Amino acid sequence: MDTYIFYGVTILLLSISVIKDKKKTRMALKKAWKAFENILPELLVVILLIGLMLSVLNPATISKIIGADSGWIGVFLAATIGSITLIPGFVAFPTAALLLQNGAGHMQIAAFISTLMMVGVVTMPIEIKYFTKKTTLLRNLFALIFSFIVAFIIGLVV
Amino acid sequence: MKKILIRYRAFLVVFIMILIFTVLYRKLGLKALSISANSLKEMLFIVPPVFILLGLLDVWVPRETIVKYMGEGSGLKGILLSILIGSAAAGPLYGAFPIAAVFMKKGVKFMNILIFIGAWSTTKIPMFIFEISSLGSKFAITRLLIDIPGIIIIAYILSKLVSKKEVDEIYRKANEIDK
Predict the structure, then answer these.
(1) Residue B148 forms contact with A (CB below 8 Å)
(2) Which pLDDT score, from 0 to 100, does residue B114 have?
(3) pLDDT given for residue A58 in this prediction
(4) Is residue A32 domain-shared with residue A75, that is, in the same domain?
(5) What is the DSSP track for B93-109?
């Protein structure tokens, strides 16, 4: 749904750009293509790794691992799964809701969702390309630690 | 041709490994390939607006404007703008990196770049609405309230830990993304 809004905005801006200056628009599209082509090799690797990962880790497997009384071990496992996988939000949230119904704890789910969104082991090749190795590793490490804090607070509040 | 092979060597290696895996474990391998094909389709759907906006931003918005609002000395205004722009985005985190590179070219402060990445990763507005409906408003709002200061704190610590030399290197790389 939000992707369609995004498309709408992009088409609108692109049209305005064409009307105002054709040459500049061509330059913008050229830059867009170059930037895309530049990360395409890494993007393709990521896509293959996602396939491999998700073929092994399906919701049924995950719910077994982070069940109701799995405690902090469950939080760690949930964070590990969340860190290595990359699932789009519109799949992740219903999955999380399903896991909750099947008895997973809020803490584990919070760790799973937070790492899923903030920590990306599979996407590291792309991140390193832009941010260098050190910054990428540090950012992901902090995001991981932060996700435990989120899990802890959610455990207290919800 | 040789150049292309070198650029795509990692992809080819992983692809061949998955093919071997598929020969050994037929069912899992085929599943992996079909999930990859799906993700590819999804990527091709999500990615075009991200890169077109990146191109338009690069060509139309003058550096001075961006420096003024998000550069050194932009203070709270820069932080808020970085959060807002990151949160308004759609698409997976890997879409944020090329946009961040254009922001770097335009002189956005490193800490604001990190805040933008953080916001894109976890406080996206469309996702928030979706989170409320799947996991309840108490869960979603609590997470959002922790996330906003969290993103800023992480960005602050990171920007202090990464040396000036390294930041310069990252900004130099950003200038080469569309070369």
Answers:
(1) no
(2) 97
(3) 73
(4) no
(5) GGGHHHHHHHHHHTT--
